[in-house]
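Support case: user asked for a sample of complex input and structure output to validate their parser. Sending the pair below.
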Amino acid sequence: MSQRKAHIVGVGETPYARWGKIGDVTEHALACQAILRAVEDAGLDMDDVDGLASFAEDRNEATFLAAELGLPALRFANMVWLPGGGGGCAAVGNAAMAVETGQAEVVVVYRSLCQGQFFRFGSGGVDASAAPDPAPPTVQAANSLMLASVGFVMPYGLLMAAAAYALPTRRHMHLYGTTSEQLGMLAVTFREHASRNPRAVMGGRPLTLADHQASPMIADPHRLFDCCLESDGACAVVVTTEERARDLAKRPVEILASEQGAPQGYGFGPFSNANVADEIYATGGTEELANRLWGKAGVGPSDMDVAQIYDHFTGCVLMQLEDYGFCKRGEGGPFIESGALSWHGGSLPTNTHGGSLSEAYIHGLNHVVEGVRALRGESTSPVEGAETCLVTSGACVPSSAIVLGRR
Amino acid sequence: MSERFFPDGMPQPLADSTTLPFWEAAAEHRLVVQRCTPCGHTRLPPAPVCPACRSTESDWQEVPGRGEVYTYTAVHRPMAAGQDLPFLIAVIALEDAGGVRIISNLVDVDPDAVEIGMPVELAWEDMSPDLAVPRFRPCAGT
């Protein structure tokens, strides 16, 4: 089995841009570019690739990509069910399972987003400028529970992610005294990391805590700078076996463990259901997952040299820091205030690329890319001698995570 | 028709055969939760199977429509043309409903005055002859 232990051997991305700014290249073409670059980075040939993996709602089907990229054979084509950005690490984990069990030799995990070519996530899919005199409201027929469940938030206007994730964060503030300034410090730290990263969309835009506090309220307590970017771009990572990884171009990074899933009754998290257990409502919903992950990896939070934590919203990062055991429940705010997340001297340098708040929003697959770079010594905010990195995917919804390591 | 709080253009509820009875009761200004016939576990949104005992048998239990704010957000972006901003979305822990919480809106309240734990009661909004949406306002006298 050890000969087949999964490693990440290549990473690649297209340029990242503000949403709607990439209009001359299709989302599908961007996916192809990212895959080509990741395979080139690995020192592999496209003819070596026999698997493709992505996660929920990907518009770019692996079967079509395989044909366009001229893959000799597609042996593994996989998409994770977890919604939105929750499945990025799970897609990497599934690629690892595929190579470790011999279903494929080289699997590329990809994500491409061109919000300008489709709907803009931040709008919740609603055009609020639509005709002011619509047909009389009624109950629409749907044909699946998934839709009907969303139907129980629609009439209340709960369609925008900034509002949905505000709900557990507001309760966290109530229970533990977490403050907007603590959330703001997190955004400021990630922006500092982005300022060192030439790929970052917000790299040239310094952010102070005062800027954060003065930014417009979107959905209380989320101000503008508590919300991730909306971006166009694509990235990809290449997963293969240890045996294959040995003689490739770059230092391989081992996938020590991966986990995916959701706690009981979670559904689509705060979008679909207000009835999860009280103990997990004001959390990222990832504590059980984290415990399984650490158990499998054989390392724990205190062993992490660096972390890439999915940052759709600042509060969700704070709650994940507690879920993964970097601090106690309720102490995420003071943990952030301590400067722990800074690349320069922090105890847990986090989102060294700038994260979704400041590098780009590619549903968190760019966090996996950065995790690999951090352990290769290629990060623009390097953590010297880093040997371990936690990468997480979208929390407060069904989620996933991986632990990366280098030997 | 009731007092109106939201414009006609708000997103409309979707319903299937499992969930339609909730909206039929709402049209009569009755707030119901789904109740498992064998074990009594209550649930919302409605679903085909009881997550506690896995029975597929259920009925509908009318609840008083009082509760308290479990969490909330004041949203500063419109979901429909002509909407008053900010508008409030809240999770309400319902009283005498077997512990069920419902996602809804708070109306008739200053967003700055909302607190977690605040007692609230039903405020039905007739959006049309076919559709009444349960929203909540602070209990009288609080």
